[in-house]
Design brief:
Blueprint: E1 4-6, H1 7-14, H2 18-26, E2 37-39, H3 40-54, H4 59-73, E3 84-89, E4 92-97, E5 103-105, E6 108-110, E7 127-129, E8 135-143, E9 146-150, E10 160-161, H5 168-178, H6 181-188, H7 192-204, H8 209-214
Antiparallel strand pairs: 1-2, 3-4, 5-6, 7-8, 8-9, 9-10
Helix pairs in contact: 1-2, 5-6, 5-7, 6-7
């Protein structure tokens, strides 16, 4: 079963403004003719987009760079691949794929050495990869080693408490319904820290206006 997300759902989980996601998908219609549904790896790319937008990289530059990587290297989702490096110079983005001597930017193939250090992409530290080096799971939140994860192979791609399988939203609602962390934890037979992780995660999805403008 192929797990997909609506544009609104993907925006919510990626902490992006819905208009940013719609603009991103509009430029990716060759891959996503139905812009209302995207797959997990494109969702991971949206997480990378948010990180790059906060660093001031224009959305069009990100999209054009991805397009060149796809056309030249045949890599559909470079940000969802372990085998890439990202470089930034001002508002210019460069991507280098493993096995390629050249890097790619919004202006196409870039030959010559990049005198830049690879960007430390924080979202990459929150990904788990399959044997082909493609993202298979995103650690959306971590509190005292209680992790909220998103994976297309688990619970229809919804955010769950790792190791237990409970939906994060269900747990967060239980805290409110039961009147507190301890009572909800007892109902579900989970540690208090697990309930806190679920609530913290759900609260983190509520973006403030500054974050919305940045994304």
């Amino acid at each position: 079963m192929r797990i997909t997300y609506s544009a609104i759902e993907a925006a919510y989980y990626a902490k992006l403004h819905p208009s940013t996601v719609r603009a991103w998908l509009k430029g990716r219609l060759a891959s996503y003719p139905d812009e209302t549904q995207i797959d997990f790896r494109e969702f991971v790319q949206l997480i990378a987009v948010r990180e790059l937008r906060i660093k001031g990289i224009p959305l069009g530059a990100i999209r054009d760079t991805i397009r060149y990587v796809r056309e030249e290297c045949g890599v559909e989702h470079p940000f969802a691949s372990r085998n890439h490096q990202t470089f930034i110079e001002g508002k210019n983005l460069f991507i280098r794929v493993a096995g390629e001597e050249a890097s790619f930017s919004a202006h196409g193939r870039q030959t010559g050495q990049l005198n830049l250090d690879p960007l430390v992409e924080l979202y990459m530290t929150k990904l788990e990869f399959d044997e082909e080096g493609l993202a298979r799971k995103f650690i959306a939140h971590d509190h005292e080693n209680e992790k909220i994860t998103i994976s297309p192979s688990e619970h229809l791609g919804q955010p769950i408490l790792a190791g237990h399988g409970h939906n994060a939203f269900v747990l967060a609602n239980a805290v409110q319904a039961e009147g507190g962390f301890d009572a909800a934890a007892e109902v579900y037979g989970l540690p208090r820290s697990a309930m806190i992780a679920a609530v913290d995660y759900v609260d983190s999805l509520e973006l403030n206006p500054k974050e919305l403008r940045a994304a």
